User: Fold this.
Amino acid sequence: MPFTTISYDVDDGVATITLDRPDKLNALDSTMERELVEVWDLVDADDAVRAVVVTGRGRAFCAGYDLSEGAGGFDVVARAQMRGTEELRPGDVPRDSGGLISLRIFRCLKPIVAAINGAGVGFGATFSLPMDVRLASERARFGFVFSRRGMCLDGAASWFLPRVVGISTALEWATSGRIFDAAEALDAGLVRSVHPPAELLPAAYAIAREMTEQSAPVSVALNRQLLWQMAGAAHPMDAHRMESIYIEQRASSADASEGADSFLEKRRAQFAQTVGGDLPSGFPPLQEPPFEPPTSLN
Assistant:
């Protein structure tokens, strides 16, 4: 699948997705919207990919929506028609493209590490929230700037951001829309660590491989989805129910046998089962609810 606004490479078990509009500070246009939805199908379908690193080319991570044409950049109907990912009927509310991307990342079956190399504002700030680990360059800057643009949060950030940094910090950042640096992002827990620019990608690759090199791919997929999906569960019984289902199915699997044998034999496990062929029946645990916006906001 050819891409024009992002690049996609796989090496030694890790896929690298690079936002690739450096002359536009990797701002999101309709083509990038479509490509950032589609690329995760490649990730999930390729058993050679164990983890993903996401970064930006040039001096920015992502400068948010491409507003080079002024307020027209916020025309969600026009953007939806250009990206061609949904069918709009008269009266339909077009889906937020940032949300389409975030929800597809949410459903991904592989761990994702964000290597935030520079400015990440607007969508560039919300884009990394459904990823599993975020690292920042010392040059990174963040801003949930929507209030300063007369807009509201995108990318399902009103769900993700409070779960990452807590409701008070999320409210402060979202209402003020101010820009803050990597040190503040680290203090708030938005990023795991801050690195000199030349050390950012090596650190991201090291974490991606640490998360996967001794783990069973099917178990990684299960655990990633269970943790993300259960973050919004109404009661721990929901988690207990889903875990019980998958424990029962995994207990008789070749991976479980190999895990026990390798432990007893004091050797590294060689897990043969794959995400492409051996996920338990009924996985993922929850289906995405339908998009049913209210007929009126009055």
Q: What stands out?
A: Strands lie at 6-11, 14-19, 51-56, 60-62, 112-116, 119-121, 133-137, 141-143, 179-181, 193-195. Residues 30-45 form the longest helix (16 residues). The mean pLDDT is 91.
